[in-house]
Amino acid sequence: MRDRRWTPVHRPVVRPGCPQVAVQPLDAGGTTGSLVRPAAGPAHHTREVKVSAQVVAVVGASGGVGASTVGALLARRRARGPGRVALVDLGSAGGGVEVLLGVEEQAGARWTGLRDVRGTLPSQDVQEVLPVWEGVEVLSGDREGGAPLDLPAVPALWRALVDGCGLVVADLGTSGAGSPAVRSLLAEAGARGALDVLVVTGQDVVGAAGAIAARAALDAVPGARFHLVLRRRRGARVSPVEAADVVGLPLVATVPTDRSLAGAVDRGLGPVTSPRGRLGVAVRRLDRVLPDLRGTAALPSLPDLRVVPDLPGAPGNRAPGDLPVSPVVPVWDPVPGDGLPHALERTRPRPTGVLRLAGQGGA
Questions:
Q1: Which residues, including other chains, have CB under 8 Å from residue 328's CB and lie 6 or more apart?
Q2: Which of helix, strand or coil describes residue 154?
Q3: What sign does the dihedral 357-191-201-263 (CA atoms) show?
Q4: Distance between CA atoms of residues 127 and 154, nearest Å
Q5: 60 by DSSP, 3-state: which?
Q6: Region labeled Disordered — which residues (predicted)?
Q7: Tens digits of per-residue pLDDT, 190-213?
Q8: Distance in angstroms (rounded) separating the CA atoms of residues 137 and 87
Q9: Which of 24, 94, 113, 300 is deepest in the core (most CB within 10 A)?
Q10: Is the pLDDT of residue 326 over 70?
Q11: Residues 44-100: pLDDT tens digits?
């Protein structure tokens, strides 16, 4: 295994305009070094521009539903465009998201090596020391532990990434939502209208119950926009419509099972998937939905929809925007550009009619 420590310098490196640059002990002898990778030539200082990233928090309603995979694939897709993208592991007690991505042998800093960070940190310093997966900067836990949520290092590094990236994906796992420290990190993004929370759940009763609990844990975060991502399961007795109805969140994507992912992860490639495959299409749809939600009200949740009878010879029951519900129930899964919801799954027979937003005109 490659040594992840950086060659220490014997004095703190202070950049112009950053009098509180944090330094970190790198060995037992007390030698300190900055978070800057040692340069081969003269240092060139550049003025940093603060970006204030959009934050997408991904929380798993229960283990094994693929929340970390969804977060990683969303970050990977965004990294293909302009701007920096970071994936921050805030929920793993050990092992870390680095194992999922296959970067555990890659040189770079992890949470356990950054525990002594203090103060204000230039975002570029963090960028230079983190491992990178598919263009995504990864701040992960490892075998020695996860994020030290009780230490000042976490808000210092979080602030640096939010200031320098266009998107920060926070992987909360199944436990991060219950941490007051995590909620405090998310509150700043929520206050400026830049926080979306993806609750990833399975298509079953246990998953729905877990999603309700996950949402309740983060309800106190101001300005958070909650969305449901459903992991599809063959033969499920709970339909997407019913899951969204019970949880009380708008369904923005359904994620199919991709059997090739396990093999790719085992080979150290990470959760790579074809952009034309079902999972790739689902992530692309999710990517297209989220930017449209920034700075706007969340999409109406499914409990705000009602069935209006569509009786023969009574066309007056139809109103603009009504959606037929029989024989296929449309799921509220909008894709910008086509203006239509996409029918994702057949459900048990329902009364012939239309779905209408509560309070809309018509009978």
A1: 343, 346
A2: helix
A3: positive
A4: 15
A5: strand
A6: 340-363
A7: 999 999 999 999 888 888 899 999
A8: 6
A9: 24
A10: no
A11: 444 455 668 999 999 998 888 889 999 999 999 999 988 899 999 998 666 789 999
